[in-house]
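Deliverable D5.2: sample structural annotation.
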Amino acid sequence: MRNKGEISGLVWGTAVGDSLGLPAEGISPAEIKKLGWHDNWKHRFICGRGMLSDDTEHTLMVLEALTAAILGALAGAQLGRSGIPDEWVDPINDWPKGKLFIKAHIQCIHDGRVARSPCFLLQLARNLIFLIIILLNGLTRLIPFRMRKMLFTD
């Protein structure tokens, strides 16, 4: 794991760069110069405040995902499959890439062969189903919070 200062610097540097650069997004360097912004970077949104865009949000999401994936991979490499609890493995039921897909890839890597991906049409069907699920989940966020809480509590 990197030290806390490096990670903090990466995130804050991204956020500050995003906030300072957002007003100039899509503007050519010549136009920035005409506006007098060249070498005069400051927050330019309402009342001189900065605003973050999806760039910072994506950076945080990627950082979190990579951290989880890398830590999981390192733990798995250290412990082997037997060190990963079955209750974490058993629920993996993705189709057409599920546990059998992972086992086949592991065997191919072990044997020095190139693993094959599932049929393109199967993968497309899976992605379309996944898209529908994600869209439906997103639409539920339009339901008022109290009603959502009543409908979706465990």
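Annotation notes: DSSP finds seven helices and no strands in the chain. Residues 54-79 form the longest helix (26 residues).
The annotation will be released with the project's public dataset once the embargo ends.
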